[in-house]
Structures are given as C-alpha cells and as structure tokens.
C-alpha cells in the first residue's frame, strides 16, 4: 500500500512509525486533512474479519473518508471532533461500545495530532466479556420492532432496537438476534441514554439506511 510521502516524517516527529503502528494490538488508522483514511493497521483488518466486515478491510477503505464508514447519527460528532483536534492540536479522548450478540466490548478512543495534516486515531479495547447473564434479552418478535415502512431502528452505539411506534412505545430493547439477522432494513439512530451520555452533540436519528458501519 502506498502512503503519502510525508507521512513517515510526521510519524517520526511524534516518535511513531508505520512498523510500530502495524503491530500494535489497538485498532489504529490515520486520517489526512480531508479525513480520508491513508493508513489502517493489521488490528483493523483482524477486527473487521472477525465481525463480518469483510468490505471494510484496509484495501477497501484506503482513500475513503472515514465518515463514509461511520453511521450517520455519529458523523456530526466525529467531524467536529477531528476539526477540533486539528485546530487546537490537542488530543481528544472518548469511550464507546461496540458489542456483538455474544460479547460486550468497550473501547477507548484517542484522536492524536501527529504533525502536518494527519490525525492518528487509536481504539484500545478496555473491556471484552460475555454479556451479563442477568441482562434482559427481548424476544425477536418482528412486528414489535418493524415500522409501517418495514424499517428497524437500531442504536448505532449500544445496538439496542427501538420498539415500533405502532405498538405505542419508544422503548429500546436488547435483541441480540437482530444484530445478525434484523427483520428488515436497519435505520441507524441513537437511543436516549447513548445520546445523552456519549454523543450529546449528535443527531438522535438518521435517514433510513442498512450499510455497514466502522467498529
């Protein structure tokens, strides 16, 4: 893979190198001035393949804007974050959840200015364990969650599914079966809890879409 010719020098000035980032266990990627992905390490590929994101390997995302592989409700939050780090040259830190049906995962993100126009984004795994055995799992009853247009609304942070307004409730339930096999096209949104505590500047809901997202 070809990197920008000045990237090595910017990394070196920050005490880093492509080699050290490649072998790091954290999921690491580098963005240019336009937030395009110009590097992602082997941990990125491992996580993508382990979680069914085969179209998100490094060859597929190289040169693309990171916002193109970010759920729409989070795009304004991350766009503002990257802009703030570029302006202030100060690191930004953020925690987020990225769980599977079987495993609870919690990551710590650092967005670091590394010289020139580049930002290094590091996602370190803080918690990885089986879901709590006493966590209430809702039954995958499709009519309870599919709206009149056949759309399923899922929180892109905690992965809970919103009950359809057709059943008279805005409750968000943990339905692990829907993570692998939703009963309809998924519209990414943010539940009230995640919106309040993790993404207060993000939009609560996005347009209907079923595309893949960045883990």
Topology, please?
Blueprint: H1 7-13, H2 18-23, E1 27-31, E2 37-40, H3 42-50, H4 58-61, H5 72-88, E3 92-97, E4 103-113, E5 119-130, H6 142-145, E6 152-155, E7 161-162, E8 172-173, H7 177-180, E9 186-189, H8 192-197
Parallel strand pairs: 6-9
Antiparallel strand pairs: 1-2, 1-5, 3-4, 4-5, 7-8
Description of the structure:
- The chain is an alpha+beta fold.
- It has 2 domains: 7-130, PAS domain (Beta-Lactamase, 2-Layer Sandwich); 142-197, no CATH class.
- The chain contains 8 helices and 9 strands.
- A hairpin with a 5-residue loop joins strand 1 (27-31) and strand 2.
- The radius of gyration is 18 Å and the shape is elongated.
- It starts with 6 loop residues before the first helix and ends in an 18-residue tail after the last helix.
- The model is unreliable at 206-215 (pLDDT under 50).
Query: How big a fraction of the residues is strand?
Result: 15-25%
In whole angstroms, how far apart are the ends? Answer: 22 Å
Low-confidence stretches: 206-215
Largest sheet: 5 strands, antiparallel
**Strand-and-helix sequence, N→C?**
HHEEHHHEEEHEEEHEH
The tally of domains stands at: 2
Q: What is the tally of beta strands?
A: 9
Portion in helices: 25-40%
Class per helix and strand makeup: alpha+beta
- In CATH, what is the homologous superfamily of the largest domain? PAS domain
Number of helical segments? 8
Q: Give the overall average pLDDT.
A: 87
Q: In order across it, which strands form the biggest sheet? A: 2-1-5-4-3
The CATH class designation of the largest domain is: Alpha Beta
């Amino acid at each position: 893979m070809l990197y920008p010719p000045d990237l090595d020098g910017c990394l070196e000035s920050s005490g880093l190198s492509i080699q050290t980032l490649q072998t790091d266990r954290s999921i690491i990627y580098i963005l240019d001035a336009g937030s395009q992905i110009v590097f992602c390490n082997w941990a990125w590929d491992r996580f993508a393949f382990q979680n069914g994101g085969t179209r998100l390997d490094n060859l597929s995302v190289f040169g693309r804007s990171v916002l193109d592989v970010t759920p729409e409700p989070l795009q304004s939050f991350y766009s503002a974050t990257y802009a703030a780090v570029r302006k202030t040259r100060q690191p930004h830190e953020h925690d987020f959840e990225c769980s599977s049906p079987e495993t609870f995962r919690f990551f710590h993100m650092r967005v670091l200015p590394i010289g020139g126009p580049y930002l290094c984004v590091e996602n370190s795994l803080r918690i990885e364990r089986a879901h709590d055995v006493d966590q209430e799992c809702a039954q995958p009853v499709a009519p309870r969650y599919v709206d009149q247009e056949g759309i399923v609304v899922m929180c892109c942070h905690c992965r809970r599914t919103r009950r359809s307004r057709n059943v008279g409730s805005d409750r968000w339930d943990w339905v692990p079966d829907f993570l692998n096999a939703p009963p309809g096209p998924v519209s990414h949104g943010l539940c009230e809890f995640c919106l309040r505590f993790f993404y207060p500047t993000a939009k609560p809901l996005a347009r209907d879409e079923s595309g893949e997202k960045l883990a």
